[in-house]
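Give me the fold.
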Amino acid sequence: LPTLPQVPDGPYSRAPFVHKSSSQHDRTSAIGDMTYERLEFLGDAYLEVIATRLIFSRYPHLAAGRQAQIRERLVKNDTLTHFSMAYRFQDRLKAGEGERELAKASGKILADVFEAYVAAVILSDPVDGFKRAEIWLTELWAPILLREFGPISADGGATFNEYNQNAKQELQQKIVGKDVKLEYVESRPMEQTKHMQRYYISLFLTGWGYEKQLLGSGEGQNKVEAGNRAAMDAMVKNKDIIDEAARKLSALREQRRMEAAAKESNSGAEP
């Protein structure tokens, strides 16, 4: 986990962790009475900008729609909540009578708190704040990008993970034979995000000595894309299993070809 950038003591160091229920709301005080609800509005915009800059520079060859998908993955509430919990932000929250409300909506609130902290880092340091936040967030997001969207090449482009609309068909031809089945199953309900729908598909193999073996998973704007990305994921993350199955299928086909040739030869030799 990257080192958390510190915010100097003052209103911006406290505000990301102050709920309005514990604050004496004063519309005339823009900073002294700051809460995370105010800061998260700005932090949300900073996160979008920083994520866009990162994706545009590291994955310049991807279509704009695909870049938007990656950005959505980086800035969605689940991701930000995970970061908040990793830094134990929940232990720093201050609430008054609204404490029960915090417990009920902890996921969304922790995402808001993370956005507020990003804004606090930037606002508290007008000279270097944005740069510090960008470096920190890039380090935080790097494992997600590497794990889900492919390693980054020296020239700034991903070394793989260009969308392959024929991935399911190619995998089918490569390893599926008699009594072998590939199952594409929705792993979670469709999500409607700010920008688009998201579908989630997991791919399982039955056959070649495996029973419902998870090969890969994918997500996309529709089920077809999610399924193809699951197949792409399988061919990278479980290449050993795929190669083993392909060798077995090839050997089986060769055996059948030889048996058919021998049968034809024998029938031709009969008087």
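The first strand starts at residue 181 and ends at 192.
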